[in-house]
Specification:
By secondary structure, this protein is α/β, with parallel strands linked by helices. It has helices at 20-23, 32-44, 68-81, 122-134, 155-160; strands spanning 63-65, 87-92, 104-108, 138-146, 167-172, 179-186, 189-196. The termini are far apart.
Length: 198
């Protein structure tokens, strides 16, 4: 992750004593200081609490579609993960930039067990990625929830984004009815993708 001192206006990551990220040690989950470095890197790219915007790749779709049954499944998975953030991937035959539409959602364990962040369990992530690759499919989207904030990428989300061809879908449970929004995150540039209702 990016070096240099943290910016004064960089968001401070939240944590509490009950999440494994605080303890570090034997867990696979990074300590809070590592999450702060990711937030600092995202902030250094111009992303604040409201989410920065920048020029993105030329392929950014104006809109994308998640079929209702797949959308319902991912919302149910993320809702069941509360009070912590939940996460998973959307799988398709083609990427969104090529007109692909997700055919299924694979919910995965949040190893961070945190209401402020998610972290993949490495063995599960490897297994799922190999299954997707073996089936000649692609990761169409990376999905996670925000338990009490808007469905906008945080500085940490931007700092940790590693799938430049994927659509990042965030579901907010800050209101009674979950709100879904989609984004591309490429080299720190965050651009919204309209989600079509089907």
């Amino acid at each position: 992750m990016s070096g240099g001192p943290p910016r004064d206006d960089a968001p401070k990551v939240r944590s509490d004593a009950n999440e494994p990220a605080v303890t570090g040690g034997e867990t696979v989950v990074p300590e809070v200081a590592a999450w702060q470095r990711a937030a600092d890197a995202g902030a250094a790219r111009g992303v604040g609490a409201a989410g920065g915007r920048g020029a993105g790749p030329p392929w950014i779709p104006a809109s994308a579609r998640i079929p209702a049954p797949v959308r319902d499944e991912l919302v149910e998975w993320l809702d069941a993960a509360r009070p912590n953030e939940g996460w998973g991937v959307l799988v398709a035959a083609r990427m969104a930039e090529d007109g692909g539409v997700p055919e299924r959602f694979i919910g995965m364990r949040n190893a961070a067990e945190s209401p402020y962040r998610y972290y993949p369990e490495p063995e599960e992530l490897l297994r799922v990625m190999l299954e997707i690759d073996d089936a000649d499919e692609v990761v169409w989207g990376v999905v996670h929830s925000h338990v009490a904030s808007a469905p906008v990428p945080s500085a940490t989300d931007v700092g940790l984004a590693t799938y430049p061809d994927a659509v990042y879908v965030i579901a907010s449970f800050a209101t009674e009815k979950p709100e879904l929004r989609a984004w591309t995150i490429v080299a720190g540039a965050v651009n919204e993708v309209g989600l079509e209702r089907t």
